[in-house]
Structure formats: structure tokens, C-alpha cells
Design goal:
The chain is mainly alpha-helical. The protein has 15 helices and two strands. A hairpin with a 5-residue loop joins strand 1 and strand 2. The longest helix has 22 residues. The chain is globular and about 60 Å long. One of its GO terms (biological process) is DNA recombination.
Length: 340
């Protein structure tokens, strides 16, 4: 898949004459770390933005706590990290009045560990060892998913008299058929799913961590993707385009400014879930969960589902097993669930 246009990560400080640009300052080193992630490690923009967000908040906190705009990496100590963990534990979520979850706290700490590893390995600095930062116990996650009837309800409320309705039906079918991440789907180009590829019913995508994997298309997905492509009379590169909103950018010969964004897809999925009367808070990721759950409940093995989802570690895929393990239910019914 060709590289998409990306927005560069802004530096925390752009003044070259500022003390913050000292080679030992945390601000300078965090900027260097983000550039390293993008240029040398070739990490996805999503991962880089995640590091940027969490490390920026850490810098803001440590500058406010220390009362100075310039903090050296040498000032990072176990005590400082412990104080930061107390701050995270008391931090109120931006979405409500509750404190942020342990899983969210761990993402801050994971970003810090990656940064410290960079300082030691890539810069040769005597920084705090990353293994000194231990992650908190993660909260158990129960993935939300839709059953077969709910999926049918979700894909039956589009206005198929409109091009946008056919496009949206194709998107929903593709999400459930492949288990793709929303960023992967938004980034598709027309070359990625050509008519020839539709006949093969499989194609390769570049997923998280720049990993390539093959995804497969159901009969229903192929049907609606063909119908959607039949509505496209333009030469533009993005596979899914918007039909409303701001005008196309000047000098945009590829139609990149018309690409349907992940946020637009999220809003679309929620709109149809409300129209279908589904009580679950449906997101594109819930459709990904539904894809995995459907496979496991039909008897697919965990390793195969791991490959289809593009998970690097099978432990990530294991969140589905406690809701799909039919064997345990059969054992229970055979040996314990009996009438007196």
C-alpha cells in the first residue's frame, strides 16, 4: 500500500537558542526520540502520536513539578517516576469524573520505558534503566461484540438509493469480513482492491507495526465492494471517499483530500447502530471483536485468529477465549450441570 500523507509530529520547542535545546534536556531528547521513531524505526504515525501525547504530558508535569522549564534526563529517578505514578493514579479522565484506568496509566509508563531505552541504547546515556519502571496490574478486558442477528440489523439500515449508502454498506461488510483496523481501512487505495483482487477474494495490507498480512473477503463483502466501485466514476486514489463536507483541496490531483477519515467512519458506524436499535456501543473495533469472536465460536484455533487479526503476540488474542470457549461449556454440561 503506498504511503499516505502524514502530519509531522510538532516539536515541543522550536527555538534553537532556548536552553531546552540542550542535548541533555528532556525536551530535546524527547524530540530526538520521536524523530528516531519516525525516520529510523519507521513506526506508524499512530504509534508516534501515542508516544508524543504521553511524553508531552509527562514533560508538562515534570516542568510544573520542578518549577523550571529545563529538566535534564539525569534528573529522572525512581522517586520522580513514583511521584508521576501517584499523579496518574489521581488523574481524572477527560471523559468524566472518574480517575483514568490502570490500562491507560500503563500506556504512559510504556512510553516512558521506550524513551529511556532509546536514551541508553541509541544515545549511550547513563539514564534510568527502563526495567526500573514496573507496569501496574492491567484490568481484565471483556471485548464487546455483536451476534449474528445484530450484524444483520446493522447492515440493513443503509439508504441504498444513495451512493453514500452503498459505500457505507461496503465498509461495514469489509470490516466484519476482514477484522481490519479502522486506520487500515481508511488508508486503502483503489489499487489495493482492484477488480482482479476482488475475484481472488484476498489481498495484503500493511498493518500495525508495518507488518504485512493477508485478509480475506466473504461473498457478501465482494458483492457490496463491487457495487460501490460501480458508483465510482472518478479517477481518485483513495478507496473510500466522502461525498459531503469541505471542498476538495486545490492541486489535489489524487483526491487525497476526499479520503474518508477514521473519525468519519466511527461516526458512520455509530449512526447506523442507533438506527438499527442496537444497545451495544458499536465502534469499528467492536466489529473487529465480532470478526474474531465469530471465528473462534465456529471452531477456529487461536493462532489462526492471531494471524488474521495481525496481533504480534498471541496473548493479545487471548482476550477472546473466555467468551468463546465452547469446550469448557460442554465439559460443564457433561459433568456438572445435571438434574437431581
Amino acid at each position: 500500500m503506498p504511503n499516505q500523507k502524514t502530519t509531522p509530529i510538532n516539536s515541543f520547542n522550536s527555538s534553537k537558542s532556548s536552553p531546552k535545546s540542550s542535548p541533555t534536556s528532556l525536551t530535546f531528547l524527547v524530540n530526538s526520540f520521536l524523530q528516531y521513531c519516525e525516520v529510523e524505526k519507521n513506526l506508524s504515525q499512530g504509534t508516534i502520536k501515542m508516544y508524543h501525547f504521553y511524553l508531552k504530558e509527562f514533560l508538562t508535569w515534570i516542568h510544573e513539578t520542578s518549577g523550571t522549564d529545563v529538566v535534564s534526563y539525569k534528573d529522572l529517578s525512581i522517586d520522580v517516576i513514583r511521584d508521576f505514578r501517584v499523579y496518574l493514579n489521581r488523574k481524572i479522565s477527560s471523559r468524566g469524573t472518574k480517575t483514568i484506568q490502570y490500562n491507560t496509566q500503563n500506556r504512559y509508563l510504556t512510553a516512558l520505558r521506550s524513551f529511556l531505552r532509546f536514551l541508553i541504547v541509541e544515545r549511550g546515556l547513563a539514564a534510568l534503566p527502563p526495567d526500573k519502571i514496573t507496569l501496574g496490574k492491567s484490568e481484565p478486558r471483556v471485548p464487546k461484540f455483536l451476534n449474528e442477528d445484530q450484524i444483520e440489523d446493522l447492515v440493513s439500515v443503509q439508504d441504498l438509493s444513495k451512493k453514500s449508502g452503498i459505500r457505507d454498506r461496503a465498509i461495514l461488510e469489509l470490516l466484519f469480513s476482514t477484522g481490519m483496523r479502522i486506520s487500515e481501512l481508511s488508508g486503502l487505495n483503489r489499487d489495493d482492491i482492484s477488480p482482479q483482487i476482488l475475484e481472488k477474494r484476498e489481498f495484503a495490507i500493511i498493518g500495525k507495526g508495518r507488518k504485512v498480512r493477508t485478509v480475506y473477503l466473504s461473498n457478501s463483502a465482494v458483492k457490496w465492494l463491487k457495487q460501490y466501485l460501480a458508483t465510482r466514476k472518478d479517477p481518485f486514489k483513495p478507496f473510500f471517499v466522502r461525498y459531503s463536507g469541505k471542498s476538495m483541496d486545490n492541486n489535489d490531483s489524487d483526491g487525497e483530500s476526499l479520503r474518508l477519515t477514521p473519525r468519519s467512519i466511527q461516526r458512520m458506524v455509530k449512526k447506523y447502530s442507533r438506527s438499527a436499535g442496537i444497545s451495544v456501543d458499536v465502534t469499528p473495533h467492536v466489529l473487529r471483536h465480532s470478526f474474531a469472536t465469530d471465528l473462534l465460536m465456529a471452531g477456529a484455533d487461536l493462532r489462526s485468529v492471531q494471524e488474521l487479526l495481525g496481533h504480534s503476540d498471541v496473548s493479545t488474542t487471548q482476550i477472546y477465549t473466555h467468551v468463546t470457549n465452547k469446550h469448557l461449556k460442554e465439559v460443564y454440561q457433561k459433568f456438572h450441570d445435571r438434574e437431581k
